[in-house]
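Task card 7
Instruction: Convert sequence to structure tokens.
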Amino acid sequence: MSHPLIRDEEHYLIMEPGEKEKFLSAQETLEWLEKWLKKMEVMPEDLKDQNSYKSAAKRLLDTSCDLQIKQGFSIEWFAIRLEKPSY
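Output:
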């Protein structure tokens, strides 16, 4: 069984083309994903069943690490640990 800290996702590394890498909290990352989803003309097929941008962003955060906004332009996010875990 894996250690529970593996699932401890409090911070994310955010990457956007042409921008510097950013470190965001989980809440800030959800808001960042919501912003990008609202800009999209067509919601990705696997998110169409979500009833809000917020729930779609949460699903993305739980199941993926990238989103193609348009051809040749994708954003990425990765869970990171900023502090060494104490066992």
